[in-house]
Amino acid sequence: GVEVGPQPQGVARADILDKMRKIVKHGLDFVQLFNEGKEFPPCTIEVFKIMEKVDYPRNKNDEIIAIIHPKLQDQDWQPLNNGDPLFLTLDGKVIPYQGNCTVYPTFINEAAYYEKKQAFVKTERIKLTAKHLRSSVS
């Protein structure tokens, strides 16, 4: 499966659909070239590895007491450093990020995740290295 977003639930966006088509086409091109015996050289790519899901701050009755800070909203995949604004309480107090390393939040404030108690997902940026690849089928 391929998930391309973000986009609101029930909304079809031409730009997102175009990105999805391009991703699927690249995947199918790779499969065809691999099946034809093309050798792919070693490569290194940066990826984002999920560290943990982060919930909204809640009170003792399990009610959300803060929202995503405006400086974090729409900043998926951007670095979040210790002390950066994270949440904003309903009475205007800033709750900063408290972490010992830079993280890269994603799925920030997505409506589909409210019921899952997820304000965003913390990821870390890592490098993966792949050896050369070639089909063993002739």
Automatic annotation (TrEMBL):
<feature type="domain" description="AstE/AspA barrel-sandwich hybrid">
    <location>
        <begin position="44"/>
        <end position="125"/>
    </location>
</feature>
<protein>
    <submittedName>
        <fullName>ACY2 Aspartoacylase</fullName>
    </submittedName>
</protein>
<dbReference type="GO" id="GO:0016811">
    <property type="term" value="F:hydrolase activity, acting on carbon-nitrogen (but not peptide) bonds, in linear amides"/>
</dbReference>
<dbReference type="InterPro" id="IPR050178">
    <property type="entry name" value="AspA/AstE_fam"/>
</dbReference>
<dbReference type="Pfam" id="PF04952">
    <property type="entry name" value="AstE_AspA_hybrid"/>
</dbReference>
<dbReference type="GO" id="GO:0005829">
    <property type="term" value="C:cytosol"/>
</dbReference>
<dbReference type="InterPro" id="IPR007036">
    <property type="entry name" value="Aste_AspA_hybrid_dom"/>
</dbReference>
